[in-house]
Design goal:
Blueprint (H helix, E strand, L loop, with lengths): L1 E5 L3 E8 L3 E9 L4 E4 L5 H10 L7 E4 L18 E5 H14 L17 E3 L2 E4 L4 E5 L8 E5 L4 E3 L19 H12 L5 E3 L9 H9 L1
The protein binds zinc ion.
Length: about 210
């Protein structure tokens, strides 16, 4: 596992999964909350993030970028925290939990169903920390993104493909809807963009994807 700091308060924990893909868990250390973006493949996957914060007194605020198993299986490690997601994400975790366990060869440690307990449809803003969560359909219908307006870092979940060779993700929404999401990203003010599986990228990536589409 690699730990990389970006700008002043963004930390990326990257795991290499033996059959050839990477997984990024993302922490933003705000003034009021520690924002944990995605909880990975189970208890052992998220443990280093919790360990990293062992001396912090600020509460966790956990965010699920979408319902896929590789982003939520560590949720139960935050039994007393707010877990945020799109409304549809909560419904889909509930509905697909058993099916997703078919992927349990990827489970790292243990998992237990822990649903998001604060959901939204369009946008949520944490003014004290200048953190914005907003709806960005594309990869899935329940995808959200997180913008750290103070540190200028965007996390867009799986709305970018898993590697530089595969920049276009699998898209559940209509192509037009995904293109609109990309156009919206281009209007935002940020330096770095973090995704679930790819390397750290910058704004240029959206033009590359739009060209490929
Ligand atoms: Zn996904």
């Amino acid at each position: 596992m690699k730990v990389k700091k970006i700008n002043s308060r963004n930390i990326i924990f990257t795991y290499h999964i033996p059959d050839g893909w990477d997984l990024n868990l993302h922490l933003i250390m705000g003034d009021k909350y520690n924002y944990v973006i995605d909880t990975g493949l189970g208890s052992l996957s998220i443990a280093p993030v919790i360990e990293y914060l062992k001396d912090s007194e600020k509460p966790f605020l956990v965010i699920n970028t979408h319902h896929h198993w590789d982003h939520i299986w560590g949720n139960h490690m935050f039994p007393d925290s707010l877990i945020l997601s799109h409304t549809l994400c909560r419904d889909r975790i509930e509905e697909k939990w058993e099916d997703m366990l078919l992927k349990s060869k990827y489970l790292f440690g243990e998992t237990k169903k822990q649903l998001p307990n604060l959901t939204f449809d369009n946008e949520l803003y944490f003014a004290e920390d200048k953190i914005r969560l907003f709806y960005t359909p594309g990869h899935t219908k329940d995808s959200i993104s997180v913008l750290d307006e103070a540190d200028k870092v965007l996390n867009l979940g799986d709305n970018i493909g898993d590697s530089m060779e595969e920049l276009i993700p699998s898209i559940e929404c209509e192509k037009e809807e995904y293109m609109q999401t990309l156009a919206n990203y281009k209007k935002l003010d940020f330096d770095y963009c973090i995704s679930g599986h790819n390397v750290v990228l910058d704004k240029m990536v959206f033009d590359q994807i739009l060209k490929l589409l």
